C-alpha cells in the first residue's frame, strides 16, 4: 500500500498523467542485467545466452530478461559475466561517460551496481575510488568489485567529509548516487514504502546537500559530476540541484541527449529553481520500462588553476623481498605482466592502480587487485586474481561447461579427478574464469573460496 501523503503529492505533481503513473504499479516489474565488458562482448554473449534478452535503450550493455529467467543462479553470475541491476539505475553511470585512464570517484557506491558499470568503461586503466559509508555495505561492494574482475578499483569505507579532507580537486569525474527516500523503488522494496515520511524526505534532502558540497571540493575544474536518486521527491531532485547551484556558482548543468521515454526536470517543482533545471532528467515508470529515477549532469567550470592534491602524495611500493613470491608464481603460471604498484597489508599482496594516491589515514577494504598471500615458502593466488584473468593469461586452464554437473560440484567446493601437468589451473566455465584449482596426483584440489560455496 502506497502512503496516502505520497499519493497526494504525486497527484499534485503529475496532474493528468497521474492515472497512467499509478496504473504502472500493476505492471510486472522489469528485471535486467548488465553485461561485463571486462569479461565478454554482447556479440559473444548473445550467441550463447541462456536467457531471453531485450536491450535497455539507455545502457550500452544493459538487457531486460524475462520473468522465467534466473540469471542470479547461473554460474555466469559467479563468474562476473554480468551484474543484475534495475534498468533505470543503469542511466547515471552512462551519463558519467567514464573513460580509460581517468581518476573517478563513486562516492556512495554500495552494493556496486554503478561502480562495476563505470569500471567496465574504464577497461582496467586509470583509478576508480569506490566509497561506501556503511561498513557492512562496503564489504558487499568489495565482493562485487572482485566478482566482476576489476583491477583498477580501490574500495574505501569513509564519510564524504573525511574523503574531502584527503582529496582536493583530485578527480576528473564524480558520481553521487545519493542516499534518498527511495520512492522510485516502492514497487520493488516494501521497506522503503513502509519507512516513508515527509520528515525523512527533508532529512534526505539535507544530507544530500552536505554530500554534494563535499563532492564539489573533490572534483577538478573542468570535471563532470553526476547526481542521481531513486526518488520522485522534488526536494531531493530539482530541489537538491537548485540549492547546490545557488551555493556553487562554479557549477553549471550540462545539456545532454535523453533516451526515448526520459523526461525533463521540472523547475516548478522546486523553490526558486532556475529554468536550466529542465536539462536534468526524470525517469518515470509509466513512460519507460524501469523504475523512478532522477539525474543531473553537472560541469565544474574551468578556472585555469590546477590544484589537484591528495594528502601524502603517491602510494609507495613495498620492498622487492615481499614481491618475490608473487613474481615466482607469475613466472611459473601467468603469461601476462600486470602493471601497477605492489603494496602489502600484512601478508596479503595487492597490485594498486598505477596512479594510486597515498591511502594512509583512510579506511581501505581493497587497495587494488588482490594478488594473493605470502605463505611460508610459497605464494597462494587470490580468488580476485582468478576472476581478473582470461584463459589466454595463464599457463593452465581447465574448462567446465556451465550446464554441467561438474561446475555445480566445483562451486559447491568439491575436488575432482583430472589429467594434466601438476600446478595451478584457472578454472573456467564456457571460457569465463571462475576460480582456482590445483592439480596434483590426478586430483584437482578445489580452491573456490569457502564463503562463496553453495549447495546447488
Ligand atoms: C542509492 S545507494 C547507492 C547505490 C549504488 N550506487 C549502486 O549503484 O549500487 C546510496 C548509498 O549511500 C550510502 N549513504 C548513506 N548515508 C550516507 C552519507 N551520509 N554519506 C554518504 N553515503 C551515504 C548508503 O549506505 C547507500 O549505500
TrEMBL record:
Residues the entry annotates as binding S-adenosyl-L-methionine: 108-114, 132, 177
Residues annotated as domain SAM-dependent MTase RsmB/NOP-type: 21-301
Pfam families reported for this sequence: Methyltr_RsmB-F, Methyltr_RsmF_N, Methyltranf_PUA, RsmF_methylt_CI
GO terms classed as biological process: RNA methylation; RNA processing
One GO MF term: RNA binding
Keywords: Cytoplasm, Methyltransferase, RNA-binding, S-adenosyl-L-methionine, Transferase
Domain of life: Bacteria
Active-site residues per Swiss-Prot or TrEMBL entry: 230
InterPro entries hit by this protein: Methyltr_RsmF_N, MeTrfase_RsmB-F_NOP2_cat, MeTrfase_RsmB-F_NOP2_dom, Nol1_Nop2_Fmu_2, Nop2p, RCMT, RsmB/NOL1/NOP2-like_CS, RsmF_methylt_CI
Family: Belongs to the class I-like SAM-binding methyltransferase superfamily. RsmB/NOP family.
Record-given protein name: RsmF rRNA methyltransferase first C-terminal domain-containing protein
Species this chain originates from: Roseburia zhanii
Amino acid at each position: 500500500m502506497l502512503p496516502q501523503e505520497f499519493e497526494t503529492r504525486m497527484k499534485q505533481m503529475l496532474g493528468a498523467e497521474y492515472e497512467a503513473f499509478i496504473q504502472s504499479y500493476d505492471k510486472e516489474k522489469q528485471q535486467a542485467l548488465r553485461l561485463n565488458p571486462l569479461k565478454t562482448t554482447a556479440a559473444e554473449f548473445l550467441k550463447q545466452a541462456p536467457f531471453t534478452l531485450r536491450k535497455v535503450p539507455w545502457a550500452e550493455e544493459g538487457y531486460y530478461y524475462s520473468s522465467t529467467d534466473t540469471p542470479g543462479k547461473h554460474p555466469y553470475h559467479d563468474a562476473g559475466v554480468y551484474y543484475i541491476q534495475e534498468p533505470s539505475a543503469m542511466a547515471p553511470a552512462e551519463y558519467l561517460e567514464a573513460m580509460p585512464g581517468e581518476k573517478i570517484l563513486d562516492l556512495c557506491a554500495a552494493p556496486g551496481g554503478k561502480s562495476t558499470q563505470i569500471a567496465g568503461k574504464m577497461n582496467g586503466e586509470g583509478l576508480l575510488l569506490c566509497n561506501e559509508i556503511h561498513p557492512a555495505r562496503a564489504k558487499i561492494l568489495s565482493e562485487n568489485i572482485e566478482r566482476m574482475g576489476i583491477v583498477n578499483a580501490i574500495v574505501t569505507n569513509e564519510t564524504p567529509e573525511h574523503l574531502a579532507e584527503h582529496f582536493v580537486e583530485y578527480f576528473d569525474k564524480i558520481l553521487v548516487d545519493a542516499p534518498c527516500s527511495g520512492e522510485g523503488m516502492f514497487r520493488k522494496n516494501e521497506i522503503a514504502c513502509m519507512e516513508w515520511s515527509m520528515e525523512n524526505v527533508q532529512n534526505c534532502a539535507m544530507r544530500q546537500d552536505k554530500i554534494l558540497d563535499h563532492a564539489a571540493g573533490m572534483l577538478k575544474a573542468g570535471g563532470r559530476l553526476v547526481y542521481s536518486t531513486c526518488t520522485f521527491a522534488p526536494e531531493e531532485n530539482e530541489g537538491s540541484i537548485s540549492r547546490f547551484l545557488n551555493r556553487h556558482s562554479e557549477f553549471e548543468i550540462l545539456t545532454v541527449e535523453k533516451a526515448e521515454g526520459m523526461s525533463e526536470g521540472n523547475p516548478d517543482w522546486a523553490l526558486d529553481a532556475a529554468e536550466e533545471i529542465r536539462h536534468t532528467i526524470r525517469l518515470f515508470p509509466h513512460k519507460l520500462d524501469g523504475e523512478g529515477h532522477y539525474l543531473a549532469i553537472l560541469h565544474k567550470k574551468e578556472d585555469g588553476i590546477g590544484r589537484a592534491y591528495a594528502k601524502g602524495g603517491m602510494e609507495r611500493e613495498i620492498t622487492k623481498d615481499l614481491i618475490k613470491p608473487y613474481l615466482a608464481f607469475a613466472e611459473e603460471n601467468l603469461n601476462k605482466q600486470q602493471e601497477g604498484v605492489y603494496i602489502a597489508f600484512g601478508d596479503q599482496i595487492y597490485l594498486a592502480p598505477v596512479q594510486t594516491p597515498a591511502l594512509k589515514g583512510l579506511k581501505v577494504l581493497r587497495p587494488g587487485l588482490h594478488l594473493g598471500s605470502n605463505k611460508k615458502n610459497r605464494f597462494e593466488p587470490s580468488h580476485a586474481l582468478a576472476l581478473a584473468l582470461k584463459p589466454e593469461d595463464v599457463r593452465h586452464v581447465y574448462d567446465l561447461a556451465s550446464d554441467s554437473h561438474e561446475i555445480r560440484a566445483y562451486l559447491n567446493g568439491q575436488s575432482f579427478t583430472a589429467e594434466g601437468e601438476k600446478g595451478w589451473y584457472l578454472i573456467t566455465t564456457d571460457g569465463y574464469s571462475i576460480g582456482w584449482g590445483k592439480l596434483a596426483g590426478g586430483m584437482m584440489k578445489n580452491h573456490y573460496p569457502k564463503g562463496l560455496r553453495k549447495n546447488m
